[in-house]
Write a structure and sequence with these properties.
The complex is a heterodimer of chains A (about 230) and B (about 725).
Chain A lengths: L1 E6 L6 H11 L3 E6 L10 E4 L19 H11 L3 E5 L1 H8 L6 E3 L7 E9 L15 E8 L3 E3 L2 H9 L3 E5 L19 E5 L5 E4 L16 H15 L1
Parallel strand pairs in A: 1-2, 1-3, 3-4, 4-11
Antiparallel strand pairs in A: 5-8, 6-7, 6-9, 9-10, 10-11
Chain B lengths: L4 H6 L4 H11 L5 H10 L2 H4 L4 H4 L9 E3 L8 E5 L2 E9 L1 H6 L1 H17 L4 E11 L5 H18 L6 E8 L8 E11 L14 E6 L9 H5 L19 H16 L5 E4 L4 H13 L2 E5 L12 H6 L5 E6 L4 H10 L4 E8 L3 E6 L2 E7 H4 L14 H6 L13 H9 L8 H4 L10 E3 L6 E4 L6 E7 L2 H6 L1 H17 L4 E10 L6 H21 L3 E7 L3 E2 L2 E2 L3 E10 L16 E5 L15 H7 L10 H16 L5 E4 L4 H13 L3 E3 L7 H6 L6 E5 L4 H10 L4 E7 L3 E4 L3 E4 H8 L4
Parallel strand pairs in B: 4-5, 9-12, 17-18, 24-27
Antiparallel strand pairs in B: 1-2, 2-3, 3-6, 4-6, 7-10, 7-11, 8-10, 9-11, 12-13, 14-15, 15-16, 16-21, 17-21, 19-20, 22-25, 22-26, 23-25, 24-26, 27-28
Classes of the chains: A alpha/beta (about 230), B alpha+beta (about 725).
Chain lengths: ~230, ~725
Amino acid sequence: MKFGVVVFPGTWSEVDCYTVLDEVFNVSVEYVWHKETDLSTYDCIILPGGFSYGDYLRCGAIARFSPVMESLIKFARSGGLVFGICNGFQILCEAGLLPGVLVRNDHLEFRCQWTDLRVDNISTPFSARANPGQVISVPISHGEGNYFAPHETLREIENNGQVIFRYSAPNGDMAIVNNPNGSINNIAGVINQEGNVLGMMPHPERCCDSLLGGTDGKLIFGSVVDYLWKKT
Amino acid sequence: MAFDKDVLDELAISPAEYELIIKRLGREPNHLELGLFGSLWSEHCGYKHSKPLLKLFASDNPRLLVNPGEENAGVIDIGDGYAIVFKIESHNHPSAIEPYQGAATGIGGIVRDIFAMGARPIALLNSLRFGPLSHERNKYLFDGVVSGISGYGNCIGVPNIGGEVVFAECYSGNPLVNAMCIGLLRVDELVKATSGSSGNLLILAGSGTGKDGIHGASGLASRSFEYERELRPTVQVGNPFLEKILIESCLEVAKSGKIDGMQDLGAAGLTSASVECAASGLTGIEIDIDLVPRRDDDMSPYEVMLSETQERMLISVKPENAESVKEIFDRWDIDNSVIGKVTATNSVHIVSGTQLLADLPVGLLTDPPQYVIDSVTPPYLEQLQNYDLNNINVPDTSPNMVLMRLLSTSNLTCRQSVYQRYDHQVQTNTVIPPGSDGSLIRIKGTEKGIAASTDGNGRLAYLDPYVGGQIAVAEACRNVSCTGAEPIALTNCLNFGNPEKPEVYFQLENCVKGMADASTKFSTPVISGNVSLYNETQNTPIYPTPVVGAVGLTENVRNYVDMSFKNDDDVVLLLGASEVVCDVDYLAGSEYLEIFHDLIAGQPSIDLEKEISVQKLCRDLIQYDLLKSAHDCSEGGLAIAIAESCIKGEIGFKGEFETRGRWDVQLFGEQQSRIVISVKKGNVAEVMRFCTDYQVEVLNLGKVGGERLYVPELLDVSVAEISEAWMVGV
């Protein structure tokens, strides 16, 4: 089992993701430079958070043209696991690997805070360790995490169970007050129809050590690790 | 005289200084040469009015691997092969003109200072001052500054772990924006800001040089200004994305061991970077203007040398290493060019191809005149210090109402709306996030932790510059001690008015003495700092505002506490006092006095010996795992400290202490050297024994529990109510 963590110019949570996989889960992990074109040796590719290419145009809009993206699309089509976190989620949407877009937070400000997420689908490689409807605490840190999809797309992903995480109250109730950025239907994370590409705005790599205030992120990375163990 | 007064004014060179230049040089300088003098002899680069005072700061400590005088900042050994460097710097004047870019480039500049030394930036902090937000202009400045810090800081992947925001009328139109960065490095990977040896090549990496920020150092930072619009082109524009890849590429270059020196281009751009490198390397330098990559085609040599374009770094390499350094920058898509070389001449030569444009001795440029002003005690001091505070009436309203009102005032209310706009978690080290007394981060791969706090009370320094200076150091260290970490070194930013005025110089001189005496007593060397003078508008200076950044070390990062009360029946104690004071003198300079009596008066006081014992006791109690919480009792006094611990812990407090005398003084007096702690019932006896051993006074305040903050006969409010009052925010 081998993880690859992609490094674009301007990425800043590659070390955070690497550290969790290496030190918390003791699995094999490597950095993947954005100019890399061969991903065939990896089982899961992580697109970490940051401001790829400065995100001056639109989040993820430039990164999607990076050389690594072409091979990433091939990798995803052949069933490899792809996990986009924050800026990685934005890039996956820009690249068309995930439905919808991420626009500026409705209050127009950057927000770094803890959020509660309800896990709405546990039959995925990224969420199998959760109980149905379990609420986990994971921090967000973004200025453009306001998920939007047109009516048709939204209905489709809701019907298919593609919404994996939603911002919620600690008891799982859905309310506007628990939505930190204006995301439609409180959506915090979605998966593609095939079930191998996940994107989420919150940062699970920031909560895999009790010293940092929580360990719920382990549930997500742990699900991936479990899945890959079973597969190999 | 070859140059008229307008030209000299633009460079902030006095006629007398111009005469001195001619005398020392033995000839008239040309315009380019004059520009170099103007920059390097500016207050910002040359510390003309502050250097003699800055020598008072202690810089003698076994932890110091490199002395502050030798590099951009001193280097502090934290054991296990690791060291830290840190520095605070002001960007007040640019932020007053263009708040977003002023604050953003303030972050960029301080971060470059740190990674230029080969250290990875691991934390940012800041200290901000504004006029009241009821004025539109102040609100514009406040929003712009916070957005600028957020926009730049969040993009570069360095957590913003703490800071302070303070409001007072004197900062109207002249905000203070002080940014601090902490860096971590392996001891053997330190990079020096030197030119290296003669024959070395000078590589300029990063942004193309443009026309932005010319005369920033001389014009903006080194004099008062009234006509802000005219100065807008002197503010630089930041590119945080470029900064981020510059960080990564420069750290890779530093790690490669292929470079001899590195220096960031900050104030006075290429001029100060190259001349300071040469001065430190005891060499000469030659820069070929034609080789400097530009963003703008029609730039004069003068503009190239004085441009303050951001995100640039100057690197000195041996010729045989130039290619491998270039490869690293190329891989990161960082533009880089050889623009000159190190020479054995002791002179700065600026050339354009074969044509010599400037020829000045390095030593002359780096040796500006120094001024010691005969200080005069400001006339207001005696009157304010001797004000009889007994004349103050106890308010007609209930203590409950006073508490509620104070909690919602701009200086005491919750700051979450500010710090939630900063990424404070990236790098996954943040143990105590912003919003407590001090913040704490872990050092991965070790059991160590680094705590930090910025602090400075302008009002107290205004009432007594010497004592105010001492208190700034004491409070910053106290905040760090409240996490369990031991303060090991300091940085400071001295924000003052025009030092050429004898009354302002008095404030500067005495404040520095107070800070210096306190840092010596605390054994916390001052490893870096920055001076921002000429902070005035309409001829009125700001409060003398010393800002101290204290950094502490803990060997066991898992033994820490924050300020929140935890469990029912935990016992609440006050360290540093045997009774709740009712001496009216402790109202001096308090928030309560200003808010309820519209008065800034009194004589602040502090006993440093007591302060040191209280802090040591608090740290040791935390390290022995005897405390549940610790909270510095400062602005707002005891009632505010208790209320904050209740709000953060979402739990009540039941007071059991004796109350007598004036309740306003007891609840809201600001006696120094006090810490509110909470202790598990079973540990109280042991904590008391510690207090006796350390000879620190202690008072039983009451118990944690319930849903109300209750003090017999004085306070009885629900935690929900005070929480709502406090959450109003700025």
